[in-house]
Amino acid sequence: MAQASNASVAPPTDDELGRAGLGLAVEGQVARITISRPERRNAMTGRTWTTLAEIGRTLPADVRVVVVSGEGDIFSAGIDLNMFTPEGVDGERSIVAGLADGSADPADLEGYIAELQEGFLWLRRPDLVTIAAVRGHAIGAGFQLALSCDLRILADDAKFCMKEPALGLVPDLTGTKPLVDIVGVHRAVEICLTARRVGAEEARDLGLAELVVPAEELPGAVDDAVAAVLATDRDAATATKALLRQAPDNTLEEQIAAERRAQVGRLTALAAGMAAGQG
Ligand code: ACO
């Protein structure tokens, strides 16, 4: 699982962010990540995801909310399709190099995919609330990135598409579990195996969007959500997200035991705080 933030490690430089097709702006408790390769419709490469993982590892400890969006009127056209050519993307490893002639080691490739998945995994961290602000297409890896966030706030022009099966691939960037958790196995099969576009209104009806707003209102809606999240107690929010995240995999007995443990932790902290205040 993703590591906790470590403010002592240097975050990616502007040059590294630029080469990864990413923008990053951290202001107080809010980090805003922008997928920024407009000339490629914000298509992402391996470096995008290893750099995303680096952003997660180096986020300042103050940050509570992370907003992920795309530059312009599209979230992301998914993986840069040049990643699947033998030449690959300039300066980056090709995913398919050596597979045709058997010279590539499958275990090595699985290890590389695990590195890429780290770019998506950390968005589930309980100490953060992560928000995908989606305009236009979120295709393949773009859809999976949005699925990695806690909340999806969509413009009314947003469109999700799990394109991978249409390209002979499986979705492997951590998106299958949240998709199934949200819409169920059968709807997930239908969405993936038809690779159809799911529009904003349908996404909201399916639970894939918490909110849909006119495109021009998206920034304001995201700011409202950020403000609402920041108004809650940080430690309680962290403990609550941890509880909610484990709920789908727990039995009722396991979950209520986890609730009790978490509450004792909260009450202990609150009581200690009150005692310190009286002292
Ligand atoms: N990888 C590399 N380049 C891309 C990608 C991509 N995924 N998507 C778009 N581009 C490039 C196009 O090649 C084009 O380049 P050019 O100007 O040099 O010809 C430029 O971005 C603009 O693309 P258009 O197709 O002209 O833009 P349009 O707005 O008409 O369509 C759309 C946008 C719908 C996103 C379309 O580009 C598209 O379907 N892209 C491919 C989506 C895809 O299959 N992604 C992979 C999914 S699987 C996965 O993510 C694991």
From TrEMBL:
<dbReference type="GO" id="GO:0006635">
    <property type="term" value="P:fatty acid beta-oxidation"/>
</dbReference>
<feature type="region of interest" description="Disordered">
    <location>
        <begin position="1"/>
        <end position="20"/>
    </location>
</feature>
<comment type="similarity">
    <text>Belongs to the enoyl-CoA hydratase/isomerase family.</text>
</comment>
<protein>
    <submittedName>
        <fullName>Enoyl-CoA hydratase/carnithine racemase</fullName>
    </submittedName>
</protein>
<keyword id="KW-0413">Isomerase</keyword>
<dbReference type="GO" id="GO:0016853">
    <property type="term" value="F:isomerase activity"/>
</dbReference>
<comment type="pathway">
    <text>Lipid metabolism; fatty acid beta-oxidation.</text>
</comment>
<dbReference type="InterPro" id="IPR014748">
    <property type="entry name" value="Enoyl-CoA_hydra_C"/>
</dbReference>
<dbReference type="InterPro" id="IPR001753">
    <property type="entry name" value="Enoyl-CoA_hydra/iso"/>
</dbReference>
<dbReference type="Pfam" id="PF00378">
    <property type="entry name" value="ECH_1"/>
</dbReference>
<keyword id="KW-0443">Lipid metabolism</keyword>
<dbReference type="InterPro" id="IPR029045">
    <property type="entry name" value="ClpP/crotonase-like_dom_sf"/>
</dbReference>
<dbReference type="InterPro" id="IPR018376">
    <property type="entry name" value="Enoyl-CoA_hyd/isom_CS"/>
</dbReference>
<dbReference type="InterPro" id="IPR045002">
    <property type="entry name" value="Ech1-like"/>
</dbReference>
<keyword id="KW-0276">Fatty acid metabolism</keyword>
